[in-house]
Amino acid sequence: MTSQLTEIDHVAIAVNDLDAAIAWYEAVFGAEVVHREIVESDGVDEALVKVAESYIQLLTPTRDDSPVAKYLAKNGEGLHHIAYRVDDCAKALEAVKASGARVIDEAPRPGSRGTTVAFVHPKSSFGTLIELVEESR
Known about the structure:
By secondary structure, the chain is α+β, with helices and mostly antiparallel strands. Helix content is 23%, strand content 39%. β2 and β3 (44-51) form a beta hairpin.
């Protein structure tokens, strides 16, 4: 079987102060934010720092009931999830569900920067929240 994962899209890091995190990446690594967006549906403000063909996604909540706000309250700052690129998010999600794994999204949905995304529950993936990301064509 050929892998549906084509590459790492991003590694997401939850932070309390997005501007401070951006400034740190700029000062320490000379990294530049290539995309910034508030994703209302997820209640987050995100900044993407390009690393080769992937990103570091810095996330901070925009409201107290967002999953990232709950994560920060429970775990503090740090690694939130890993996202893998796939050619077809719906197909990859169906394969996950067919395997018996738990999912957070029953169907793909719009993500940031025009992507289509779906999340796999960490209880099915060895404690790691996984995001499947299909880039817009």
